[in-house]
Design a protein that fits this description.
about 500 residues, single chain, about 10% strand, binds pyridoxal-5'-phosphate, alpha/beta, Aspartate Aminotransferase, domain 1
Amino acid sequence: MAEEKFVGTPLKAATHVNQNENLIFEKSSPGKKAYKLPPLDVPTVDAHTLLGDSTRSDLGVMPELSEIEIVRHFTRLSTWNYAIDLGMYPLGSCTMKYNPRVNELVSRLEGLAEAHPYQPEQLSQGSLGIMKLLSECLVEITGMDTITLQPAAGAHGEFTGILLVRAYHGSKGNPRKKILIPDSAHGTNPATAAVCGYQVENLKSNAQGMVDVAELEKLVDEDTAALMLTNPSTIGVFESEIHKIADVLHAKGALLYMDGANMNALVGKVRPGDFGVDVMHLNLHKTFSTPHGGGGPGSGPVACKKILEPFLPAPVVVTKADGTLGLEYNRPQSVGRVRAFYGNFGMFIRALAYILANGPDGLRQTTEDAVLNANYVRAKLEDTFELPYKTRTLHEVVFSDRLQARNGVKTGDFAKRLIDYGFHPYTTSFPMIVPGAMMIEPTESESKEELDLFVDAMRQIAQEVAENPQHVLDAPHSTRVARMDETTAARKPVLRWKPEQAS
Ligand SMILES: *Cc1c(COP(=O)(O)O)cnc(C)c1O
């Protein structure tokens, strides 16, 4: 064990066979095929005759491999990845929870998976029924009046929600100019406001990491369109004065937008519609367990109050006079479409399966377990890491690297070293109001055993920092690729394979 330079031995991770693998283009050899077809017994027609000028002739180099080579290629690559199915993925703000297999099963039912968006309404009653029931469930969960399922992600939901706000003020002949955003906000919030043509005005947080209501009162005026507020905030703190915040805005005719990406801390406990929120988005791919993070398309429904309903994207699902379901396109005040067809339908099925499988009590329990897990991690690590905001933690806890940074080890180094211990890194350097942030969101999926392994890993790394900081600075040691030059990777990315020039 002489070469063992680090303090502890990771309890979870061990070395295992992990095979080398070239790019699929490099494995290609001409003439190989992954299929065998019977001899052609119909006349051949060349592609150009069929497709005319739409035919592409510049296909470039396409890989040619046998079936087993393809299977092995992707299977080997898959063993290089970390996934929620391997262990805890405490990426704060992202809610990387387990995606129950039953959701996948339901979404693959033939009648749903093979349904075509242009199928006539009378043949789409099941699909429309899923959209209607999911809408009703989400309206009940949020306490809002109505919803659109169209947006394809959280940021896209923000965009849609702020378009509703803009259409609302416009319809009153009073286009307002600015949107207020707290300094703790997710980066997508100011980006959304700017893309929708608003000036962004920054709102400073108070010592508890919450909106300073007195400060807000000074800033809100007749030119304020809305406040965009993440609740619970990105430091996992509930805005306990949210109803006052809503009153301050409403008194000046401004609206309250809630970034609901963190609903995992609220579902079944409180409803934004009850505490004054006018419009909000949900992340089905976070709170409602549909796959995300390279794992599939997202879905960011936008729920709103009655006053914003006329502006919702078309079409909306309606019950027709004969009792069947249909799609209504004739909505003169609509902000228009934000997505092809009706949104990412496969995500609706998964989210509805999750909601129905849990039921109201199950969803409430989920929320309680998510908050309990975050508080367990907080309690176990509070004596090792600095906790800049002592306010009660909901679904995530944000430490800072201040104590360890004295030895030159920053949040990003810690995160890299976690990989050696068998965990996906937590979120680093966000939110910005915490310098050197270490943002940990365990979600309800984790057992006490996995949480304890994580806590042990974090403590051991902290000890390594004290005894051999260089070992942490050089991490990860167990991965196929060592520490990357992240700046070069971001600034000069090489995204395309090109055949090597014959020399
Ligand atoms: C994840 C997240 C978003 C953005 O959601 P995407 O689906 O990634 O676009 C917005 N706000 C908060 C607080 C989030 O956590």
